[in-house]
What we know:
Blueprint: E1 21-27, E2 30-37, E3 45-46, H1 48-53, E4 68-69, E5 75-76, E6 80-90, E7 93-103
Parallel strand pairs: 3-7
Antiparallel strand pairs: 1-2, 1-6, 4-5, 6-7
Amino acid sequence: EVISFFEADYEGVRLPHDDLVVVTLQVMLFTMKRILIDSGNSADILYKHTFDQLRILTDQLIPIKTPLMGFAGEMVHHLGSIDLLVVAGTAPRKTQVQMTFLVI
């Protein structure tokens, strides 16, 4: 289904813009609230505290050697990556996608 915007939708919006979006999604079998979507970032981040709450064992993390630069330009050390099923929406408008997250 096409998502489209009309001139009236841009009323009061200064263009160009790169606003962030905060959503609620289902990751694995858990509902995660306040997920920040920032299309300007090059990695999907999952914080260790949240990873622990998903009750996934750390031995399931895939080691990676690629360094990650933080928002302030500092080096961020990650624990590895993991592929998780993410569900957005509800039936009949629901989609599922496998996403790779860096756990930091």
